[in-house]
Design a protein that fits this description.
By secondary structure, the chain is α/β, with parallel strands linked by helices. Helix content is 39%, strand content 16%. α6 (139-150) crosses α10.
Length: 293
């Protein structure tokens, strides 16, 4: 078993991003600029946004955070997004999910200018991804692709089973792994909570992408010897033994699955760090005008 080390890969890529950001500052006279909107005080969202802002600073980006209470109206939020869309010095805009129930996340996603949609959730970006056209790839799948590439994991002709069909990870990951490129060229099976014979299907996988949001859902009996296991799960539980007051668990029972895997991502220290790197890469591409000129 060998680790797909998200910390190592993300730090390596962030060094490259830092150098490119410095070049943009020298040419344009400003830093790449990421704007984030955070509604409410969800603990996970607070942590994720703080990490994104901190990483922007590390690589030489400018970051701006707009905070709103849960009582903000949908109209107010959409108006703010429209204002940011028009700002020529904003390269990327993200709205942290989840949102309060009275705000439609689809309306919010579609309101973001697709040219600044560095989370890669806008229908235009998802549609272009389906057609293998230049676009902002959703940050988590993008991070996974970069990790597979860094470790030169063979994907062509392999059977990739994706567990979970969310629009954020599972569905786009299934598309990306089937594209005629590298990483890609897999035969992909997209599974979910209603899939019959799920254990049998996962056991047939050369590459498992676990993104179902359930602690230790993938156990050792579900994984064949030598499989590559990518754990997207970030399940938070209250803990009295950690400084933060909570502990993260993946969707994979790491302790028991790792001895069977050829490669596996840890949690934490795996896909989560690569998600932020994917976001930074998308923001950099926007600042450079690489996708939408």
């Amino acid at each position: 078993m060998q680790l797909l080390d998200g910390k190592f890969v993300s730090e390596k890529l962030k060094q490259e991003i830092t150098a490119e950001a410095a070049g943009i500052l020298a040419v344009k006279g400003r830093k790449p600029h990421l704007v984030a909107i955070l509604v409410g005080h969800d603990g996970g969202s607070e942590t994720y946004v703080a990490s994104k802002m901190k990483n922007c600073e590390k690589v030489g980006f400018k970051s701006t955070l707009y905070r709103y209470e849960e009582t903000v109206t949908e109209a107010e939020l959409l108006n703010k997004i429209d204002e940011i869309n028009k700002d020529e010095e904003t390269d990327g805009l993200i709205v942290q999910l989840p949102l309060p129930k009275h705000i439609d996340p689809e309306k919010v996603t579609e309101k973001i200018d697709y040219r600044k949609d560095v989370d890669g959730f806008h229908p235009v970006n998802l549609g272009r991804m389906m057609r293998n056209l230049p676009c902002y790839i959703p940050a988590t799948p993008y991070g996974i692709l970069m990790m597979l590439e860094e470790y030169k994991i063979e994907t062509s002709g392999k059977h990739c089973v994706v567990v979970g069909r969310s629009n954020i990870v599972g569905s786009p990951m299934s598309v990306l792994m089937s594209r005629n490129t590298y990483p890609g060229n897999c035969t992909v099976t997209l599974t979910h909570s209603k899939t019959r014979n799920l254990e049998e299907i996962v056991r047939s996988a050369d590459i498992v992408v676990a993104a179902i949001g359930k602690k230790n859902f993938i156990n050792a009996d579900m994984v064949k010897e030598g499989a590559v296991v990518i754990d997207v799960g970030m399940n938070r539980e209250i803990s009295s033994v950690t400084k933060s007051g909570y502990k993260l668990y993946g969707d994979v029972d790491f302790e028991n699955v790792a001895p069977k895997a050829s490669w596996i991502t840890p949690v934490p220290g795996g896909v989560g760090l690569m998600t932020i790197t994917g976001l930074l890469k998308n923001t950099l591409a926007s600042a450079k005008g690489e996708i939408y000129r």
